[in-house]
């Protein structure tokens, strides 16, 4: 499997490279917390880094590889190697020849890994050389790149835990983007941008971290609650969900099976229910066992029976 993925990444056409990138991410998640997953990451990482830095490779392929590299490093990279991977992603989004799609994907992956940075490194990033790029990205004509830059600033600010870490220019730009009503932007772009930057502004102005999502997950017959209450968790959830969604479109296109319900096996909910490593990331605990599911189902059936019996007694008494 590793050989096939590497071959497609190196010599495949654009669609093959994108499909191989997605497959690499899915394989790594399926391998879970095993040593095999770590070995897979170490084998595939050099190819991803090399292709990401190859200017002749298709931009869309490199964008997909940036996302995959970020996710694989997030799941399997040793802590001491995290900033090395971040440097590769930074080189990609700062490249003068990089298009907006490559920049936004590489920056999003970089921000995902930035959730691991200690406080002092986050402060250095906000006030160092990368701050100049982030300021310019906030002025981009591309809404995805503007939002990626804003979220990167929010992640770094949250990790820095220092209200003096942010330059005044960041606050001014983010505040302006949170109320932007320029007519030359599409209505959809304006709505998406304002929604994102309002949340970023709340973080910068010192308000409590907003609860972005409280998601109920059905695990067999049980219901679990996943709360996304920080930029760290939001970034982790969003990038994982994006990989699953991209995998659906890429596989449908490559396999010509448009009518097949891939979402049944590749949806984010399925991984939240069953994947050991995804559940570990969001601190949901190990996947419920079959016996736990049966017990829960029996409990639910018992409650229904009690209600029906009470209703029947009420009816007969009348």
3D architecture notes:
- By secondary structure, the protein is mainly alpha-helical.
- The protein has a single domain, classed as Leucine-rich Repeat Variant (Alpha Horseshoe), CATH 1.25.10.10.
- The protein has 16 helices and 2 strands.
- It has a two-stranded antiparallel sheet with strand order 1-2.
Integer-rounded radius of gyration: 22 Å
What is the general shape?
globular
CATH architecture: Alpha Horseshoe
N-C termini distance: 69 Å
Percent in helix: over 70%
Give, in spatial order, the strands making up the sheet with the most strands: 1-2
Number of alpha- plus pi-helical segments: 16
Query: Structurally, how many domains make up the residues?
Result: 1
Give the strand tally: 2
* CATH-defined fold name: Leucine-rich Repeat Variant
The helix/strand series, from N terminus to C terminus, equals: HHHHHHHHHHHEEHHHHH
Low-confidence stretches: 256-265, 311-318
Largest sheet: 2 strands, antiparallel
Strand residue percentage: under 5%
Mean pLDDT: 83
* CATH class category: Mainly Alpha
CATH superfamily label: Leucine-rich Repeat Variant
Please state the structural category: mainly alpha
Give a concise summary.
71% of the residues lie in helices and 4% in strands.
Primary descriptors:
single chain, 318 residues, mainly alpha, Leucine-rich Repeat Variant, two-stranded antiparallel ribbon, 16 helices, 2 strands, 4% strand, globular, disordered C terminus
Furnish the topology, listing elements before pairings:
Blueprint: H1 2-11, H2 14-31, H3 35-52, H4 59-76, H5 82-94, H6 100-114, H7 119-127, H8 129-137, H9 143-160, H10 168-178, H11 187-204, E1 213-219, E2 222-228, H12 231-255, H13 263-266, H14 268-274, H15 276-281, H16 290-317
Antiparallel strand pairs: 1-2
Helix pairs in contact: 1-2, 1-3, 2-3, 2-4, 2-12, 3-4, 4-5, 4-6, 5-6, 6-9, 6-12, 7-9, 9-11, 10-11
């Amino acid at each position: 499997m590793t050989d096939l993925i590497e071959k497609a990444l190196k010599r495949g056409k654009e669609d093959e490279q994108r499909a191989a990138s997605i497959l690499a991410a899915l394989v790594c998640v399926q391998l879970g917390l095993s040593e095999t997953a770590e070995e897979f990451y170490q084998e595939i990482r050099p190819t991803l880094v090399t292709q990401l830095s190859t200017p002749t490779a298709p931009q869309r392929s490199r964008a997909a590889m940036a996302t995959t590299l970020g996710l694989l490093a997030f799941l399997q990279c040793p802590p001491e190697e995290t900033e090395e991977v971040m440097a590769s992603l930074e080189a990609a989004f700062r490249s003068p020849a990089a298009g907006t799609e490559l920049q936004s994907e590489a920056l999003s992956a970089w921000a995902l890994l930035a959730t691991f940075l200690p406080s002092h490194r986050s402060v250095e990033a906000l006030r160092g050389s990368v701050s100049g790029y982030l300021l310019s990205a906030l002025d981009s004509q591309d809404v995805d790149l503007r939002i990626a830059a804003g979220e990167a600033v929010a992640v770094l600010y949250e990790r820095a835990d220092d209200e003096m870490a942010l330059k005044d220019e960041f606050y001014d730009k983010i505040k302006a983007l949170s109320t932007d009503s320029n007519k030359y932007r599409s209505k959809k772009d304006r709505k998406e941008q304002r929604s994102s930057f309002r949340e970023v502004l709340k973080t910068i102005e010192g308000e409590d971290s907003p609860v972005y999502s409280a998601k109920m997950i059905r695990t067999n017959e049980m219901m679990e609650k996943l709360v996304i209450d920080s930029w760290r968790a939001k970034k982790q959830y969003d990038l994982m969900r994006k990989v699953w969604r991209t995998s659906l479109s890429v596989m449908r296109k490559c396999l010509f099976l448009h009518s097949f319900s891939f979402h049944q096996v590749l949806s984010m909910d399925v991984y939240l229910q069953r994947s050991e490593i995804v559940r570990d990331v969001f601190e949901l605990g190990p996947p419920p066992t079959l016996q736990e599911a049966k017990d829960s189902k029996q409990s639910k059936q018992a409650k229904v029976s009690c209600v029906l019996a009470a209703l029947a007694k009420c009816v007969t008494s009348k």
